[in-house]
Specification:
By secondary structure, the chain is mainly beta. The chain contains one helix and 13 strands, in the order αβββββββββββββ. This is Outer membrane beta-barrel protein.
Length: about 280
């Protein structure tokens, strides 16, 4: 009986000693936890763009040579609306600034207007008709103003050149001088020229998915001047260079556009799970 008690006492002492030794040993640190990498930033990269829209055009005046002592005023000068189309390529630098270069065609818009000329013993009017179209190359920069419910308002500005072409330009004139009423018709050759152009933009962009955005935008365009080619009177009694110039063409454009991002965001893949063997 005594030997059994001795064995129990020895076993208890050995167990207590093992527990004390284990308590003195350092606790092993848990395996490190893998934090997922930050999602890719929602900016940066090339994109393509395209727009369709309508123009609402104006001109300041029609200028021409006037004899000394005569005065001339422009009346009813304006244009019909016309369609526009453009394509471009751009780059987004960060989440608020981007820039692009576009080529734009602005369709033919019918022109109408007249000049009234008054002088000593003379009164007359020139009624102008024709059409106007443009090719525009422009570099634009935009600032995005923040995003709410996937909608991003933006503003921008652009500079470039506009090739303004007048087609089918015609001057139907009537005058009363010295008690005599006379009429004349002058035809002008089609002509175009390049001008400095600039624009201001504002609009809303809606991101349909990470690679596709739809825009509704307004643009104010200043396209420079336009002039017809040489004139010829209907009876071939006179012809030569024209002094007529349509000054300061401007337009208020409404456009619907799309943007395609060319840089696909990387797909997130979680790191492999490491287990202790």
């Amino acid at each position: 009986m005594r030997s059994v008690k001795s064995l129990l006492a020895a076993g208890a002492a050995s167990l207590i000693s093992s527990m004390a030794f284990a308590a003195d040993m350092p606790i092993a640190a848990p395996p490190p936890m893998y934090a997922p990498p930050a999602p890719p930033a929602d900016f940066g990269g090339w994109y393509l763009r395209g727009d369709v829209g309508m123009t609402n055009q104006r001109a300041k005046s029609i200028e021409g040579t006037v004899a000394p002592g005569f005065t001339k005023t422009t009346e009813g000068l304006g244009f019909d609306s016309s369609p526009l189309f453009d394509l471009g390529v751009g780059y987004r630098f960060n989440n608020w600034f981007r820039a692009d270069v576009i080529g734009q065609y602005r369709g033919k818009a019918n022109l109408h207007g007249s000049d009234n000329v008054i002088g000593p013993g003379f009164v007359g009017a020139n009624n102008y008709t024709g059409s106007k179209s443009e090719w525009v190359v422009m570099a634009n920069a935009y600032v995005d103003l923040g995003t709410w419910w996937c909608v991003t308002p933006f503003i921008g500005a652009g500079v470039g050149g506009s090739y303004n072409k007048l087609s089918g330009f015609r001057d139907d004139g009537v005058s009363f001088s010295g008690g005599t009423l006379s009429n004349s018709v002058a035809y002008f050759a089609d002509s175009g020229k390049w001008n400095f152009a600039w624009a201001a933009h504002a609009g809303l962009a809606y991101k349909v998915n990470p690679g596709f955005t739809v825009e509704l935008a307004y643009s104010y365009m200043n396209l420079g001047d336009a002039a017809p080619g040489n004139y010829r009177l209907f009876d071939n009694s006179a012809s030569g260079p024209s002094s007529i110039k349509i000054k300061e063409l401007t337009s208020h454009d409404l456009k619907l556009g799309v943007r395609w991002d060319l840089n696909s965001p990387p797909v997130y893949a979680p790191p492999p799970l490491v287990t202790k063997g």
